[in-house]
Design a protein that fits this description.
The protein has helices at residues 2-10, 24-40, 122-132, 141-154, 165-177, 181-189, 193-205, 220-226, 230-234, 272-277, 294-314; strands spanning 13-17, 45-49, 74-78, 96-101, 112-115, 207-208, 213-218, 248-254, 260-266, 281-282, 286-292. It is α/β, with parallel strands linked by helices. Helix 2 runs parallel beside helix 3, helix 2 runs antiparallel to helix 4 and helix 4 runs antiparallel to helix 5. The chain folds into 2 domains: 2-188, inorganic pyrophosphatase (n-terminal core) (Alpha-Beta Complex), CATH 3.90.1640; 193-314, Diaminopimelate Epimerase, Chain A, domain 1 (Roll), CATH 3.10.310.30. Bound molecules: manganese (II) ion (MN). Residues 25, 79, 102, 121-122, 154 line the site of manganese (II) ion (MN). Manganese (II) ion binds next to loops.
Amino acid sequence: MEHILQKIKEYKRIIIHKHIRPDGDCYGAGFGLKAILQETFPEKEVYVVGETAEYVKFIGEPDVIPDDYFKGALSIVIDTASASRVADQRFSLSDYVIKIDHHIAIEDFGNYQYVDTTRAATAQIILEFYLKFKDELKFNMKAAEALYTGIITDTGRFKYRSVTADTLKDVAFLVEYGLDFTSILGMLDIKSENLLKLQGYVLSNFEKTPNGVAYIKMKPEIIEKHQVSLEEATSLVNELSVLEDCPVWMLFAEYENNFVRGRLRSRAPAIDKLANKYNGGGHKLACGANLGDWDTVEKLLVDADELVREYKNSII
Ligand SMILES: [Mn+2]
């Protein structure tokens, strides 16, 4: 972390990169870091690049910057395990690249990497970065709101096993700082009527494998019929998290060029190896998989079903 602070001090222009298909954590960590750096070093230029995400857009608006801004700049890539998932690939034009992440490392990239898989969110790492250098860095309410949003979205509102006492101690700082966490939770819970109806569709139309993998195929025609974004539609994966006999649940959808991806979730058996087999990865209990077509979904479901069968046998 000393090295990261050193590099931040060294560069005049700092560009923060989210990952493609941004989530609450990369938004929160990115805009949280931006707020801290802008508050501390008003003479520096700090940008956050990459796509927008509708449900967390209250945190900040990504910057659109020309190619020549990258020359001589410091790029900080957050919450992204592999180079191909970095939103705005122009980080390769930067002078120095730092990766800050909490995912299981699947690929080395950049000049310096700070990866801590014991942290529930990248936003938590950014908060700890601030707390470590409290005497040198400044903080503001924008940073507090962004980092809190990152932490609660990546922990399912402090529900996942990734939460530790440290997570709560770190967040205690935000509460002491005066953060209105109730209003942030309220903003995150708001859903459009269309999305609420799609939620109803998911609950009525999910399927199950024989041993207990619950899944929903979020086909393009369903998304179109409900007039929601792909991002909103795929955010419904955890609607299936509460089924008593299904410790693993998944959502599949078509992305660009009809490429099928899956969101894989588990409350007990580790699924990261399964995700690796299907060109994906992430955390032990929450992964993405790059499947390509719907036939491959069927293959993954067979493997996932076997994984759940073995898991259920192991606990009897
Ligand atoms: Mn994250």
